[in-house]
Write the structure tokens for this entry.
Amino acid sequence: MSTSDTHEDDRTMQTAGAGIHSAARRRLSWPGWLARWPKGARAAALVGVVVVAVVVLVAVVDVVLSFGTVHPGVSVGTVDVGGMTLANATDAIQTHVAEQTAVPVTLEVGDDRWEVEAASIGVSVDATALAEAAYDVGRGDVTEAVWERVRAALGGVSVPLDPAYDPAGLQSLVRRINDSIAQPPMDAGVRIEEGAVHRIAPEDGLGVDEEQTRDALLIAFLSDERIVSLDLVPLAPEIDEEAAEAAYRAAVAMLSGPLELYYEDKQWTIQPTIIGQWVDFRRAESADGPVLEAYLASEEISATILPLVAEVGKPAKDASFSVSNGVVTIVPGEDGLAADAVDLAAKLETALVGGQERRVELAMRRVEPALTTEEAKGLGIKERLATFTTEYSPSNKPRVNNIHTLADALDGTLLAPGETFSFNGTIGERTAAKGYQEAPAIVNGKLVPQLGGGICQVNTTLFNTVFFSGLPVVERHNHSQYISHYPKGRDATVSWGGPDFKFSNDTEHWILIATGYTNSSVTISLYGTDPRYKVTYETGPFTNLRNPPVREVEDPTLPEGTRVIDERGVSGRTIVVTRIVTKNGAEIRRDTFKSVYRATEEVVRVGTKPVAAPSTPATSTP
């Protein structure tokens, strides 16, 4: 090889080597757009790319590691739920809230304190929804999810507990606190005095605020804080002067002059002072909030107008029952006619507030009886079930009066199917205002004057009527002493505030109690639909006979050795009456009425007046 050839080959190799080096440089060079950046900027970009790559790598690893669990660093309130499954996170939240709300919170307002239970204001959380919200952290949009995971890993992400509460329970608590210590606000109002209308200015109150109370309690219940202090704040009235102005103007218009009422040829003039008694005020809701409105109260109109216009009305008459010789008939009811206070109130408001003429026709309405004829027919009162009569002396006028008064009060009483009759509950207290007079009655085994004496005559008659009807006797008491003119063992006593007589209507229809009397007897009958009860009874002998104790009272006005019975005693005794009630041959009821009568004291006056010895005639000696 020649020297020149060698040099040429070297040049060729150098050229080739240069080409190889240049190609390598091209492969390792920055992109054209980046190559134009300054060297420092290119380095920063490289660091950013590396950081992004690392973040993406961490996020990918986090996705793998937290699959099916809440991402690490996520908490709900103060509960760390990172790495937990949904179920475990839910349990952890529930346990935390249960522990926090198990202890009451003390609420302080000044020197006053209230212990508040969480349940009283319904503190609760939706643990499942909160756990799901924690689980969703880092699982949304890709970009957002990555940064949420990074935030959770670096500094933590907290989902607020967001508790729920019961508004009614909170309002009740605030109302209780304010009722105890606060000064309530006073709404603007309107007052009517002697026909004049006056405004009432509103006034601010002072108390605890509902929203502040709520926020403070919810924070306390879900933290370790157990004492909450509240300050009293001004409480604004709900109705201000503007919201009450329309009511004031309406009231002024209503009382601006007299009112003329008319019905057919009748006419009445109502003065503003009377109209003022009808006007009342109430809270109403509007689009702008609560307002005060004036209205006419129908009950107040009734109180003044109805008596005034009674001459053009007619009271309704209830259907009733008439009995004669064991036959019952229905006396038809009659409709009544009365002023319609509700309709009249509406007409009056129109006339008094916006009308040109203060003249209104009286509205009338038909008044249906409380018991209509058709209703009476449907009660099933069509035949006599039982009747009984007892007799008494006509000489004791007050006692006869009481028997008649009580019989009248009892007459016409209706007993519904399944209802229990009470003598005291039906008749009420026996008073002079009801027409009762003082007459002898047995009190603690002695006959003493008592208002309503003689009522047991009527009650004994009623008991015997029920006895023979076969109806269930619920309560019955015998007299304290035996009374011979009543059926043996079948007397019945009652006393206001003491013993009562009760029986039940076990039939499927209503029962009517009908009474009748003369000056020496009283009769009580029961009417309804005969249940076909058959009654038999057995009266046992008197047992446990006990002589009356005798008390002697010295009487210096009676000759020595003389005995006069002042109060006759009655022997004590016991007797049992058994009633057997059957229907279609089968026994349905067996009752035992045991009467235990006490021996009552006999009082005897014993004479102590000395008796002079008979004088002896003088004799002479021959």
The first helix runs from residue 3 to 28. Confidence is low (pLDDT under 50) at residues 1-28.
